[in-house]
Amino acid sequence: MLFKDIIGQEVVINKLQSFVAKDRISQAYLFSGKQGVGKLALAISFAQYIMCKNKKGGDSCGECPSCKKFQKLEHPDCHFVFPFFAKSSGTNCDAYIQDFRNQILDTPYFDISKWWDIMGDAKKEGIINRSESNNIIHKINLTSYESEYKVMIIWYPELMTQECANSILKTLEEPPHKTVFILVSNNSDKIMETISSRTQKIEIPNISNDEIRKVLTDKYHKSEDDAISLSKLSLGSWTRVLNLLIETEEIKRNFEHFTLLMRTCWGRKVLDLIKWSNTIAGWGREQQKSFLLYSIKMVRESFMNNFGDSSIIYANSKEEKFMERFSPFINEENLLILFKELNKAYQDIQRNANPKLVFLDMSLKLIKVIRP
Ligand SMILES: [Zn+2]
User: Quick one: pLDDT at residue 189?
Assistant: First the structure.
């Protein structure tokens, strides 16, 4: 990962570059900041930069043997420590290293709940245990394989057990020559004072709206309007932007299929309704449920639109245009039947009924409601 791949954070990057330029690399850093500002991405690109054999223009070259290994996160002198579910007291994070690498290769902007989910239970919380501290000390005392430096990135040091923290104190204070610890924390107040006092602290600020907007237009080809509204919702977190992008895709898909359903019902095109039902039946069950909830929302808001109270309506501009034309067809008489049919389909899907039958049955009933 190169510095140029980081979203924003120019000031921090300049600082990291100058540590290397002035040959003043500390033995331990603490990168702290909110979720999604790029702390882990910065830690990895800093490690890569320290080890790159052919730095140019203040960034890693991306091509030397060391950089090539970083591309797969498999550099033998860069170690990762992260919280995990300890199945037995002897488990350490080596058991999950490939999952961790795969997630970072997908994107280094992810939150911890995503990590718990990958490990199999989004509701559980992992730890960095005593067994891992032995692993840390063992790895840090190995002679480096290829690089002058050894780097150990510890993600979520606040989730170290007290036993683990105590047993790495001495190593953190007096690590072997040319060893760098980078602690990456979301909540540095929760790190034991004895640990954090041994580190050089680097505050990672929120990403500015302007930087987020620029990446969205330049790299994600979003319209200026979309980029501005997403950046306003971002709260300085790129992880949040990524989640919003997924949500936006879902809304777009639901909108397309809801409007298609309503037009087809209005046109009484039964063959097209069968086709439509088959398409929706091919989706995943969660997507089908999301579509039905979305449809209920659209019907409700279209009905509200008839009373001209736009303050209670939450809709984007496409949805608003559609509602303008659609709402005259929603009245007190058919509103309740529409709700009943959509809710019934939702419950049927939830109890694993055959989706082809559920959606076809629902759409045929909707014809009578939309165009009696
Ligand atoms: Zn390089």
Answer: 94
What are the residue ranges spanned by the domains of the chain? 3-205, 251-370
251-370: same fold as 3-205?
no
d(CA 330, CA 23): 71
Ligand 1 centroid–CA 178 distance in Å is 18
Give the side-chain half-sphere CA count within 13 A for 216.
26
Give the architecture (CATH level 2) of 251-370: Up-down Bundle (1.20)
- d(CA 2, ligand 1 centre) in Å: 9
Tell the CATH topology of 3-205: Rossmann fold (3.40.50)
Spatial contact of 356 and 283, defined as CB atoms under 8 Å apart = no
pLDDT-based confidence at residue 309 (cuts at 50, 70, 90)? low
| Residues less than 5 Å from ion ligand 1, measured at CB | 52, 54, 60-61, 64, 67
The mean of the pLDDT values for the chain is 93
* pTM to 2 decimal places: 0.77
